[in-house]
């Protein structure tokens, strides 16, 4: 049945209109444009009181300012259907301290960042003994402790990314909080150790909360970085600020060619706290975003797009900003990591303590979002596709907001049907 959309109190800010291009990104400096597409679908993924299971229709397409019909999908807030249920095949790492970033190396091993300790730890690859085989692997080995990390609140050592040209340029990229700001650095990885950090981008606003921190290389070879508004919503609409943005950088940290604003790393703006980034096979960038008190969001990211914060939270139906493809009450999601696999986006929920599957096709939602592992493993932080096609999913129960169990935090290996 219909669910009312609430955007909360509006703050008056200057909203700068843009004409977003198609969201697809391909190899080369400039984004792919394919003309006008129907804008992203929006669905309210909500449970108001008791959930009444039933069949509901798909939500019509919606663009900036267009009206939507918002429905509560069958199964929201409970485990999804068996046909798409991932199977927990094993635990690849235990005893981690607030794991955050996760990135795979060409040898199929993985690096994981611990937010509060500043350590980077290595997990053997799926082909190595004790990892990815369905058994318990124990504690991973420490690679290094990144200098200059100032942990506290939601800040610390956050996202990791591995250079696409790692065989020739063995760089590991990290997003970290210092005493003054958030920044992007890179380090050479040789002989199982990390070199000294090279600062590529500094001056990203930092605070106790809303630091963003996710990074991903796109099919164009550029580095995409999600940032938070650092508890100041005006940062999100100020295109001179690096806060509340998705940034697009060259591998050397410069504003990437083809960015929408001259000499700027800003790719999109009007974000509150982006902690999940993923590309689909069509080169489209998706982002998961924390709301404040009302709605969390899944957004299809378009070049130069304004996503409305702080004037809008969730679907706003405002021609000056882009609406989310899906939204959830903050109790059901608080989304962090995001990955694409088998025709769907998989989104890890912290407060929601569940793994969401959102089917997508050609830049649109292709079915109702469904939840899995609800409450089974506690807070979920990062989801990533491993070289063997499985999903690696990290818990976040030692981050000060969870209830750790023996062995936490851990990384699970999930097999898709």
Automatic annotation (TrEMBL):
Record region (Disordered): 56-85, 122-141
Gene3D superfamilies attached to this UniProt entry: TolB, C-terminal domain
Protein name: Glucose/arabinose dehydrogenase, beta-propeller fold
Domain Glucose/Sorbosone dehydrogenase: 97-401
InterPro entries: 6-blade_b-propeller_TolB-like, Glc/Sorbosone_DH, Quinoprot_gluc/sorb_DH_b-prop
